[in-house]
TrEMBL record:
<dbReference type="GO" id="GO:0005829">
    <property type="term" value="C:cytosol"/>
</dbReference>
<feature type="binding site">
    <location>
        <position position="273"/>
    </location>
    <ligand>
        <name>ATP</name>
    </ligand>
</feature>
<dbReference type="GO" id="GO:0016301">
    <property type="term" value="F:kinase activity"/>
</dbReference>
<comment type="similarity">
    <text>Belongs to the isopentenyl phosphate kinase family.</text>
</comment>
<feature type="site" description="Transition state stabilizer">
    <location>
        <position position="23"/>
    </location>
</feature>
<dbReference type="InterPro" id="IPR024192">
    <property type="entry name" value="Fosfomycin_R_FomA-type"/>
</dbReference>
<feature type="binding site">
    <location>
        <position position="269"/>
    </location>
    <ligand>
        <name>ATP</name>
    </ligand>
</feature>
<feature type="binding site">
    <location>
        <position position="93"/>
    </location>
    <ligand>
        <name>substrate</name>
    </ligand>
</feature>
<keyword id="KW-0547">Nucleotide-binding</keyword>
<dbReference type="InterPro" id="IPR036393">
    <property type="entry name" value="AceGlu_kinase-like_sf"/>
</dbReference>
<feature type="domain" description="Aspartate/glutamate/uridylate kinase">
    <location>
        <begin position="76"/>
        <end position="290"/>
    </location>
</feature>
<dbReference type="Pfam" id="PF00696">
    <property type="entry name" value="AA_kinase"/>
</dbReference>
<dbReference type="InterPro" id="IPR001048">
    <property type="entry name" value="Asp/Glu/Uridylate_kinase"/>
</dbReference>
<protein>
    <recommendedName>
        <fullName>Isopentenyl phosphate kinase</fullName>
        <ecNumber>2.7.4.26</ecNumber>
    </recommendedName>
</protein>
<feature type="binding site">
    <location>
        <position position="194"/>
    </location>
    <ligand>
        <name>substrate</name>
    </ligand>
</feature>
<feature type="binding site">
    <location>
        <position position="215"/>
    </location>
    <ligand>
        <name>ATP</name>
    </ligand>
</feature>
<dbReference type="GO" id="GO:0005524">
    <property type="term" value="F:ATP binding"/>
</dbReference>
Length: 322
């Protein structure tokens, strides 16, 4: 059964750059984590279908795997409505940082070169993620914010376009977006973070929930490398944007967390992710921040509400106050 037009958007998933790439190795995909995530998404989207159809018919290490038409007869492609967004990780950030694309300068030689180099890198990663999803039977299509007309002013989102996403979903396709280098009406160009893309789409399209995949089990009160770090199980956000840690109770009086951002990260690191998650939560969409490639990630994909998560689930819930 194909996805019917007008069906509710179930989930928007953000694959963090550090979750699916080796962030300290130039343009290096974490194949194990990406493959596991794609299998889990396929399980979640295609729970009621037959064996998924491999849709990556391009040439990889060998000859293209193009199935015979007869092999596809009697099969159906019935995916739940998801949108997938991914960060850049070790793709794009180094090029953007080297040329300061996030600060503008498109009129200069280094600015133009850095803009082009950044987009080559992030779209290269996007294609590999689309291929990994397609190989697991997910009808994924890459959509770049730059090509779709997204732009900023003074690094804040100014214009965006979702008609192509809506059309893709109505046709039973899964849009795959990413952080991108885009035009900026004040400074020429900048970097549009995948977290900002997620926030805007969550506000406009109102999925049942959103999932942030990270390389750690959730949000901690200090860098997870600190032996005394404590996982924040639930953060409640008030209408004015202020927030409070409700679980664990021992941290309920704390109103902030300590974060670290890599020197080459031009998108703000974990602090920016928490801020975007809070905005999403205020709009009425729960956010689950969970470790990539774990059963907790699969449970987050599958759940219908935060109340359906098991007691054993490990991650951080960011939600609006009741």
């Amino acid at each position: 059964m194909e996805s019917p037009q007008g069906q509710a958007l179930r989930c928007i998933v953000k694959m963090g750059g550090a979750a699916i790439t080796h962030k300290d190795e130039f343009e290096s995909i974490n194949v194990e984590k990406l493959s596991t995530t794609c299998r889990q998404l396929s399980q979640s989207m295609n729970a009621s279908c037959n064996t998924p159809i491999n849709m990556d018919w391009s040439r990889g290490d060998g000859a293209p795997l193009v199935p015979e038409v007869l092999e596809l007869q009697g099969n159906s492609i019935c995916t739940e409505r998801f949108i997938i967004i991914h960060g850049a990780g070790s793709f794009g950030h180094f090029q953007a940082s080297k040329s300061s694309v996030h600060k503008g300068g498109l009129e200069t030689a280094i600015g133009k070169a850095g803009f082009v180099a950044t987009r080559i890198s992030v779209t290269k990663l996007n294609q590999e993620i689309v291929r990994a999803l397609a190989s697991e039977g997910i009808p994924a299509v890459g959509i770049s914010p730059f090509s779709a007309g997204w732009s900023t002013r003074s690094r804040a989102l100014e214009q965006y376009e979702v008609s192509m996403l809506r059309k893709s979903l109505d046709c039973g396709l899964i849009p795959v977006l990413h952080g991108d280098a885009v035009f900026d009406s004040a400074q020429g160009c900048t970097i549009l973070s995948g977290d900002v893309v997620l926030r805007k789409l969550a506000q406009d399209l109102k999925p049942l929930h959103t999932v942030f995949l990270t390389d750690v089990p959730g949000v901690f009160d200090r860098p997870p490398s600190d032996k005394d770090a404590i996982l924040l199980e639930e953060i409640v956000v008030h209408i004015d944007g202020s927030w409070k840690i409700t679980r664990p109770v021992i941290l309920s009086a704390k109103t902030g967390v300590e974060t670290v951002t890599a020197a080459h990260d031009t998108t703000g690191g974990m602090a920016a992710k928490i801020a975007e998650a809070a905005i999403i939560a205020v709009s009425g969409v729960d956010v689950y921040i969970v470790e990539v490639g774990t059963q907790h990630a699969l449970e987050a994909f599958n759940c219908t509400s935060r109340h359906s998560l098991s007691k054993e689930w490990v991650g951080t819930i960011v939600r609006a106050s009741s």
